[in-house]
Amino acid sequence: FSTWWTQVFCYDVWQKLITAAVPNTLGYGCYIINELVNVVMMGHAPHSDPSQLAAVGLGNLFQNFFLVSIGVGLISGLDVLASQAYGARQLDAAASNLSQCRVVVTIVFLIVSPILLISKEMLIFIGQDPKVAYWAGQYNKGTIFGILPAFHNESARRFLQNCDSPVPGTIIMCIASSLHVFWSYFFVFHLEMSTYGLGFANSITWTTSSLLLNGYLYKNARTYGFEPRNLFFVSGGLTGIWNYLKIAAPCVLRTWSQWWYDNITTVLVGYLGTHALAAHVSLSSLSTLLFMFAY
């Protein structure tokens, strides 16, 4: 009993757990807080109606289902490869894993992202309200500019996390998320760009975070024992990329299977009408934020 008690309440164990968990929670939470800000801004925007609020939910669904879940799943390969390589002090291998991840998510973005440009037509095809589908399409067109920077931001954040340095990424994401309030207000309230402006605010926020975090990583690479060039330019050729994919591809299925419930639920609620979908979007944004503390 004494051994169990000592292990459970060991100060060093709790310190390491909290040091790793709190920055990771805040980092993930920033993504959800941005979505919650979007919902609040659109819900109070001038001349807005429930169709525009509902469109934010459908737009996020489309992005998550077709693109973000794939990218996040592929980036999860770093949790296996980079963490093992860094723990074994194989720093060149860890750097190669990051650069391989960058190449993979960039290729996926270039292949899949055009589907966001026809999201209005696809949503109408599956029976969603045409007005909601139009605003969702505008939201996706504004967001598309920032998805690739978001992938590179998340790659750098997860890499630093697996190199036992989660704090810099969290600080930068908190700064970018704070600025997201301003960008959302500016484009939605001042310029009255509605859902397109909200999507463009997403793009600016993610691009800002990506530039700051990757700039930090480049400048401080040697502090972690890496050559800056190795973190941004792929080595190992196609063989290295293929080896990365063999680990990362199953992570895509895991991520997608975790997210499919919310996506399908949003589609089903959309058949109940615009007001029901708008209410669902508002509630799910708040519930997802609360869930992220455990996730």
Structural description of this entry:
This protein has helices at residues 2-8, 11-44, 50-75, 77-87, 91-112, 119-125, 130-162, 167-190, 194-219, 237-270, 274-294. It has 295 residues and is mainly α. Helix 6 (119-125) packs across helix 7. The model has no long low-confidence stretch (mean pLDDT 87).
Explain the layout of strands and helices.
Elements: H1 2-8, H2 11-44, H3 50-75, H4 77-87, H5 91-112, H6 119-125, H7 130-162, H8 167-190, H9 194-219, H10 237-270, H11 274-294
What is the β-strand count? 0
> Please, what is the average pLDDT?
87
Helix fraction by DSSP (H/I, runs of at least 4):
over 70%
Uncertain runs are none
Structural class: mainly alpha
- For the termini, the CA-CA separation is 30 Å
Radius of gyration: 20 Å
Number of helices: 11
Largest sheet: none
How do the SSEs run, as a string of H and E?
HHHHHHHHHHH
* Residue share in β-strands: under 5%
Q: What gross morphology would you assign?
A: globular
